[in-house]
Amino acid sequence: MATASPTVLTARALLLDMDGTLVNSDAVVERIWRRWAERHGLDGDEVMKVVHGRQGHASMAVLLPDRPVEQNLADNARMLAEETADTDGVVEIAGARAFLASLRGLPHALVTSADVALATARMNAAGLPLPGIRVTAESVGASKPDPEGFLKGAAELGVDPADCVVFEDSGAGIAAGRAAGMRVVGVGPRADLHGPDVTVPDLTRIAVDTLPDGRIRLHIG
Hints:
By secondary structure, the protein is an alpha/beta fold. It is 38% helix and 19% strand.
């Protein structure tokens, strides 16, 4: 699943997804979404193929296309409260703490489909620092796979999208990064299915240094 040979990428900024990329929250996501699937008479396995990377209401719109938007938004608010309260089993993706430490002082942002409360709860549960710049569910009008979040992150950092590298695990997130015109490093087994530029099993396979002109250099593999 990892890259066939070591790869080097350079960038002006890095844009980091959270769930599945920095934080392993799969246990919570499985518990809550499988309960939701059962309540709505849907197959849990099929639901789990859809929900990663998207905001909850966007997943609901895919899974229950005839349901009113207002109902999805209300249901999503309840789900977010459940997810925020449940951090049992939330841990860092291997190497995440060291990776974030290596980015101190370098341009980077969190770009997540979680809202502020959920992002804060999960990063805290995993023992990870929150990046200073964060693009959360409240910051955007459209969920991944729409590129809005990544484009907003690049704009807040003052960096051209083409000079950004995205770290993502899900199909929706990888599609969003590509649509934003960015290169994508896929993290974990889900990513490999969606054609990122390069894939790694976890963040222990990433080393960071800087070039004299201030660019970030990523050693991958």
